Amino acid sequence: MKYFLPVQVYADILMIKWFCIILVWVFGISSILCSAFNKKIGVFACYVLLVLITSAVGTKLFYNMDYEFGQNDLMYFAKYAKEHNKKLVILNDERKYSALYYYGGKVFFISQDDKEEMKKFGQMLDDRDVVVIVRERKMPKVDETLDFDIILDGRKYSLIKVK
User: What would the pLDDT profile of 48-69 be if each residue is shown by its tens digit?
Assistant: First the structure.
């Protein structure tokens, strides 16, 4: 698995790896034993316990891993913009409501494919108190058009300031 995944993703999965392996082994062997002794209720109980334990204990681990994939970036960058009294622009095709919530003010969502919005974005950049959240995979396209400094670099997003 580590040879097919990026290092950061592998490190995140490593957190929950042993939890999943132990659960599968314990309940897998238990259900095989129950099946071998023709205990249908035992097999059913193993599956029910597997689902319950995964839901009760594993959910926190899985949600933490999910937040590591960009959600923390958006929240941290929005708080940064709010604390430093900067206007926040998200250069993306979709709305990111967590950034809107943590910023607490008007967030400008600009699509790179819409020419009118990009003109409005160009006018906004005249104001030096603007920071922009850009998705990592869109950075090469942004790099072609803007001269910027990276303020904060996250896993899935970067916070930039135009020079």
Answer: 999 898 888 777 777 766 666 6
Q: How far is CA 131 from CA 43, 106, 163, in A?
A: 56, 13, 11
Instruction: Encode burial over 80-102: b for 16+ CB neighbours within 10 A, e otherwise.
Output: bbeeeebbbbbbbeeebebbbeb
Type of residue found at 105: G
Q: What single string gives the DSSP state of each residue in 70-134?
A: THHHHHHHHHHHHHTT-EEEEESSS--HHHHHHH-S-EEEE-TT-HHHHHHHHHHTTSSSEEEEE
H/E element holding 98?
helix 97-103
**What CA–CA distance (Å, rounded) separates 68 from 50?**
25
- Residues 6 or more apart whose CB falls under 8 angstroms from that of 14 comprise none
Confidence of residue 93 (pLDDT cuts 50, 70, 90): low
